[in-house]
User: Fold these one by one.
Assistant:
Number 1:
Amino acid sequence: MTAYKVLIADDNSVDRKVLSRVVRNQGNEVIEATNGFEAVDIFTEHRPDIVLMDVMMPGLNGKEATRQIKSIAEEDFVPVIFLTSLSDAQSLADCLESGGDDFLTKPYNHVVLQAKIDSYHRMSEMHRTLLNQRDEIARVNRHMLQEQRVAKAVYDNVAHAGCLTSPNIRYELSPLAVFNGDVLLAARKPGGGMHVLLGDFTGHGLPAAIGAMPMADIFYGMTAKGFGLREVLREINQKLKSILPVGFFCCAAAVDLAPDRQAASVWMGGVPDCYLLRNDGEMIETLSSRHLPLGVMSADKFNDQMTEFPMANGDRLFLWSDGIIEARNSDGEMFGQERLLNVVRDSAHASEVYEDIQRAVDEFVDGSEQDDDTTLIEVVMDDALREDKESAVTKAGISQGPRDWNMEYRLEASTLKSFNPVPLMNHIMMEVPGLRAIGGQLYTVVAELFSNAFEHGVLGLESSMKQSPDGFVEYYRQREKRVAALEEGFVRINMHHTGDGDSGKLTLTLEDSGDGFDYQQHDISIGNNYSGRGIPLIESICDSIEYHGKGNKVSVVIHWPLELET
Amino acid sequence: MIDLDSLNMLKDIMEEEFQPLIELYIRDSDRRFPEMRQALQEGDCESVRMTVHSLKGASSNVCAVELAEQAYSVEKMAIAGDTAHLRGAIDELEQSYLRVRQQLNSLL
């Protein structure tokens, strides 16, 4: 049995001696005090585990001594058991009222005495464990908040370049929203207009925040370099897909606001319906998610198709994460899409919708804690955004980079066996700011032309094989075999660009060591699906496609800026 | 006057401390009667009450059950401030105590 340190305070020496002996006989260590003052002093010095306290003592009585001991003990639990010969209910209740934990009536029952000492000792230990765990939790929590502050500072540095303060934007986002998984990004495009992205990562805390860093980095970096929003989304998707664990992704709404053509292109994946409100009309247009969230699909399956909406000056787009719809009132009821739609519908004017939504949500949650989870943004079409086109910084940005240049790259057989030159080609083309906006499409064009030159030209594979599923398999079996056996051959790539900084012309020429084909016998004009995959895309951005010589050399010409796709 | 069975149990519990305990009881109690009378003379009933309360507890510990009961009735008198009867009650209590003391001494 563990020896407990027991303080016995009793002015009656006979009583004290008897009790002391009993408690010692039970294996405990006893310290005696002959009055209340002594009890307090001894307690301070020896810190006993439990106190047996006579109620009636001259000088400082038991109740007052107990109050002092409890205050000295602070948050430590020191059980005080009153010793009393009083037996009426009120006197016993008074004992507990004055801060005692229990009482023991004289004459003492030894079994009950020991049982109480043991029981209170267990409670003390439980209390100690509780305090330790509380302190541990507090420590961990402090540590976590500290980490979040650091992470937030880093995140703010990454995301600082945003233009959320533009006059055409109003938004609501809690300061630590990134740890709720909500992200709001906005950046001016070098050519005027802006990109806006609202993201809602799955989960909470650091796991939800971690993906926001590369997302903001890519968004701001690529937008500043003039990449189109489709390329930006494609890159973000690929990055998130590769870094986030399975089951983690980012619901997002992305807007390419183009005041020069008075339109907005919108991409939405996994976010609730958003609304477009006309400045001069009552009609509410609903924008719905048509894609899976970012970070779900692999790069080759990702769909970057955007939906275009004409937007006149003063027309407004409202985007939000599911935080608003899932905001709960004190009854646990959700705000819901219907209530939101009603607020929008009941607003006197489009310009008042933003405040009306804020007010309605505030009133609905009415102090019930989690209204800091709501992320909301209003984006207004504004002609003034066009002015950025004339700004010195942007002018310099768009004019920089190579204008007139030519590059030739010849790959021999041993290189072709294992090296794919397409990323490098793409990288070189992306040095031209005007080509960045169509980076994704260019990549596909170069990839298609190179694969034609290598597979049909150098390896001599028939494209017609790929037209049936069996042939498709056979085609790749043959390809593998011929690559392994390849000893001679080459692909020569030539890129030629001319331009004035505002527009340009890129000519891509690929020549291979193969036998070519009788292109004059084939209808190779644009619009004819002569070799399978990738061609609709080539058609959509190439102005011409031309074969030379025996058919082992092809040139395509691309002018930028592109005619708008719809 | 003394519950001898209980006193033997106390002897078992206290072992070598038994004799000093009884001596302590007698020393303490001897002193309490002049204290009570002094307090009573000063009209300090609360002090009388404290002293007789202690005597009651100590007596019950040394198994002088009847003496403890008698002390309890004096304690109630002191609480009530019944000074008229207290003097006589204290005298009677002392007589009982002296008999208990004699018996205890004979047992040592």
Note: Chain A has a mean pLDDT of 85.
Number 2:
Amino acid sequence: MPIDKFVKLESTCVPVPIENVDTDQIIPARFLKATTREGFGDNLFADWRYDKSGNPKKDFVLNDPTYSGKILVAGQNFGSGSSREHAAWAIAGYGFKAVVSSFFADIFKNNSLNNGLLPVQVSKEFLEELFQAIEKDPATKVEIDLENQKITLQPNGPSESFDINPYKKKCMLNGFDDIDYLLNISNEIETWEKANS
Amino acid sequence: MVTKVDGGPSVLYIDRHFVHEVTSPQAFAGLRDRGIQVRKPEKTVATADHNIPTLKQDQPIQDELSRFQVNKLALNCEEFGVPLYGLNHKWNGIVHVIGPELGITKPGMTIVCGDSHTSTHGAFGSIAFGIGTSEVEMVLATQTLLQNKPKTMRINIDGELGKGVVSKDIVLYIISQIGTGGATGYFVEFAGSAIRNLSMEARMTICNMSIEMGARGGMIAPDETTFEYIKGREFAPKGAEWDKAVEEWRQLPSDADAAFDKELVFKASDIEPMITYGTNPGMGIGISKSIPTFEEIEKSTQATFKKSMQYMDFEPGDAMIGKKVDYVFIGSCTNGRIEDLRAFAAFVKGKKKADNITAWIVPGSHQVEAQAEEEGIRQILEEAGFEMRQPGCSACLAMNDDKIPEGNYAVSTSNRNFEGRQGPGARTMLASPLTAAATAITGKITDPRDFL
């Protein structure tokens, strides 16, 4: 299925200043019993967000109306552990369009890109500045410009460049998905199969 | 490699695609929506492992969602012609246990599965890694995957392991040294004399946990030990085909002077039985050591350390030996094979399980279960007060009913000790089957070497 296009985003941020957030925290295993892609946003960070009885925990950021936005800002080494793509579905399903951190685990990064959720890797210093700016003013806005690969703290900076695989960038800018590309080269795959059987 | 996208990833052909019930339903649905078939059902193998109960498997699954999901896999496999070794099939088991034991996993193959522990198969010298559900759909549809070439790292472990130290301790040691992001972006090759001397199952334990150091995959070069293991297995080549295959496999190992982007060296003699104290697999120490003090922790990881201490209700500086334990879990794709059960049984033979311990001994597959039965392991376990259950992922991720209750401490031979991994509020300590056995007998964290 085609993914949502991502060109430019300006939004307020939701800070999760916790390092090593693994995918079990992002979406606990018991929610993986679903057989469709819907509804994962409701269970994002479930065990940090709700207590045993299902009541929202006051001290968790998603339950704090002061913070809202389409950009999730997280501590280093985000998305480690299980390959569950459901983690990316949960974050995107909740309404986030981008995740900013100083370090992403590989599989999670890939899963995000495959779902039109942009992982933006910044320096430790920039991340720290971002967290501080948001703490000072929860209404702080950030602009993410995919075409120019730039992330800018509004209104006056600073700004930092971020890396992204050129192929994935093209896919995200245009809403392309990998399967369409691969299905289009079916003949090449068949030729290879015949030569290597 | 089939081809390469200009300035982009390579198109990698996938030799074997393993499938399980949790990460496949949306992928099959995607195929259905596109109106296309599975390109190579004969290169696809499915099993039900994550969601299934480990008791009374002959009865319908109690949990409605689990039952539905396991059923969905059966329906999908039927519709798309994918071979399924489902619940109660004689070859059913944890996906990364059955692939190798059936001789499906072979050196030089590209192998993927919607499961991060797919790295396990790298122990055979295959390129094996975990993928997300969208990529599962890609492979089902096209038998290929778009992949960027990762960097390479070689981790050497030289020398001889001490008594009571096994491959699980090796991998926990490495992760404690380099951290859970230490190999991110790299494909790791494990080498060195300590690795060469390991059995295939011991090698699988190490490759299994490569993902816990952030690696894309982990592999060990195939050798005679590898070929011996595969020989004669159900899907291994036979006769003249076998000889031809072995000749090809002998050509696979990296050249002696191959260059890696990064190279690390560790001494086997530095490794003692390991135990984790925190909430990620890198937070482990030698069992005779104490939890680091706050000052000893690197500044950048202090926040994680603090959070871990709170969750586990441990104090910095605590000794691990003697800490109370409530549950012991033997199983998972890390340590759920016959050698693990043998080691556990040999350890507990003639002894008795501690009264305060609830133990779940879960074989990795029906074949492992049958072999354990044949070797008298079930009897040894029962006489010592343990019960062997039926195969499945079980308490490793507690998707089924095998959940560690909130606040309880579990010594587990699985691969992750994240908050809530084994059940909401569960407190996991990862260890080898020997350490788990020693703990199961005394009822508290115990150095297995005390008994050897």
Note: Chain B touches chain A through 68 residues (CB under 8 Å).
